[in-house]
């Protein structure tokens, strides 16, 4: 998170976050609660990961969980791309 602008920067994606720590915690918790009520028409299950992402700014345990999941996803993606490239070369 950029301390000056209050914008969360991840690679090339910028997300505007509340500058106040308490506001980020409240917003993150509301997103998670809303995500648990995802069967309702307006709310959705997509809100749970977004709430965890917001909370990961302030809580080291959530930040570690998010980082571990990013690493696992990245490794899986690299293996998948390597397997597809290998299969694509074998077909030609």
General description of the model:
- By secondary structure, the protein is mostly helical.
- The protein has helices at residues 21-36, 47-55, 60-91, and strands at 7-10, 13-16.
- It is extended, with a radius of gyration of 17 Å.
- The model has no long low-confidence stretch (mean pLDDT 82).
End-to-end Cα distance, whole Å, is: 46 Å
Shape field: extended
Computed over alpha carbons, the radius of gyration is 17 Å
Q: How many E strands?
A: 2
Q: State which percent range the strand residues make up.
A: 5-15%
Alpha plus pi helix count: 3
List SSEs in N-to-C order: EEHHH
Mean pLDDT: 82
Helix percentage: 55-70%
Largest sheet: 2 strands, antiparallel
- What are the segments in which pLDDT stays under 50 over at least 5 consecutive residues? none
Read across the widest sheet, the strand sequence of neighbours is 1-2
Structural class: mainly alpha
Brief synopsis:
This protein has 92 residues and is mostly helical. It has helices spanning 21-36, 47-55, 60-91; strands at 7-10, 13-16.
């Amino acid at each position: 998170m950029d301390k000056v602008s209050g914008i969360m920067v991840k690679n090339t994606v910028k997300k505007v976050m509340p500058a106040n720590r308490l506001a980020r915690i409240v917003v993150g918790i509301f997103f998670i609660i809303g995500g648990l009520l995802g069967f309702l028409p307006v709310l959705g299950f997509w809100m749970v990961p977004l709430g965890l992402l917001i909370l990961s700014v302030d809580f080291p345990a959530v930040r570690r969980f998010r980082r571990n999941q990013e690493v696992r996803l990245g490794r899986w993606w690299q293996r998948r791309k390597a397997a597809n490239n290998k299969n694509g070369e074998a077909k030609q």
